[in-house]
């Protein structure tokens, strides 16, 4: 692999390379390219050979000068004329059957016909590690992937609420998919057993169960985050997507939490999230996840912060979080 003039060159004969490289965060696009001398005759001959193999009804030459001496307009005209003479195909700049891209550099010309879309973002590892909460549902692995796209390696945290819901199988499979996006880096999955806390909370404050459970979740997450040397917590929240994800509830859940909390999906709707889940590869796994049976039919949607903090103190959620976090199990996800 070499880097030159804003391009990264991967020298390989593996046909899988474009697909593999396109999944590397920071890569905008990938193109399998031929390299030829910058002489017009050599560029034209290669373009003609490519066109003859494709036999297009129409074509377009997309030329770009990247430090070479010849203007891009001249390259497009002369190479286009050579291709038209050899093939008899029409020139169509709007909707051609074949596009031939030429990038003229001082010492070579790159010629290609395919642009594989990459995921973009920032290179993984260019930002600090994050702890992403993962439930087994559709949203949380997408949120983890989006924060990875911004350069952050992740560790995952799952709060196991069995028997109220059993999502361990889905979570492990989602983690395996996310690991495939980690460019060979290690992915840790932390699991904390949380059923005892849910039973206590739901039996005493049923309508506030979700808000209180999430406050407990954030306290546990903060402790696990510090243990794994992460710098923030990532959730799959989307504002207003469910009854409990309201501004009032989110504030009541997060005030006083001793860690930054990131919500990559906060302004996205469900169709956008599902589209990303399909692209990432987690959607088919996620649709088999279970809903928590401890969730009330009529949850509080505008929680009062003062009341939630009072109940948190009454139930001793901070101490309970420390006890539960001490029992965390770390699973290393294999490649």
UniProtKB/TrEMBL annotation:
It is found in: Cytoplasm. Keywords: ATP-binding, Cytoplasm, Nucleotide-binding, RNA-binding, Thiamine biosynthesis, Transferase, tRNA-binding. GO terms for molecular function: ATP binding; CCA tRNA nucleotidyltransferase activity; tRNA binding; tRNA-uracil-4 sulfurtransferase activity. It is an enzyme of class 2 (transferase). Its main location: cytoplasm. Residues 15-115 form the THUMP domain. Its EC number is 2.8.1.4. Gene3D superfamilies: 3.30.2130.30, HUPs. GO terms for cellular component: cytosol. It comes from the Archaea. ATP binds at residues 133-134, 214, 236, 245. GO terms for biological process: thiamine biosynthetic process; thiamine diphosphate biosynthetic process; thiazole biosynthetic process; tRNA 4-thiouridine biosynthesis. Pathway: Cofactor biosynthesis; thiamine diphosphate biosynthesis. It catalyses: [ThiS sulfur-carrier protein]-C-terminal Gly-Gly-AMP + S-sulfanyl-L-cysteinyl-[cysteine desulfurase] + AH2 = [ThiS sulfur-carrier protein]-C-terminal-Gly-aminoethanethioate + L-cysteinyl-[cysteine desulfurase] + A + AMP + 2 H(+); [ThiI sulfur-carrier protein]-S-sulfanyl-L-cysteine + a uridine in tRNA + 2 reduced [2Fe-2S]-[ferredoxin] + ATP + H(+) = [ThiI sulfur-carrier protein]-L-cysteine + a 4-thiouridine in tRNA + 2 oxidized [2Fe-2S]-[ferredoxin] + AMP + diphosphate. Belongs to the ThiI family. NCBIfam families: tRNA uracil 4-sulfurtransferase ThiI (TIGR00342). HAMAP family: ThiI. Catalyzes the ATP-dependent transfer of a sulfur to tRNA to produce 4-thiouridine in position 8 of tRNAs, which functions as a near-UV photosensor. Also catalyzes the transfer of sulfur to the sulfur carrier protein ThiS, forming ThiS-thiocarboxylate. This is a step in the synthesis of thiazole, in the thiamine biosynthesis pathway. The sulfur is donated as persulfide by IscS. This is Probable tRNA sulfurtransferase. It comes from Methanothrix thermoacetophila (strain DSM 6194 / JCM 14653 / NBRC 101360 / PT) (Methanosaeta thermophila).
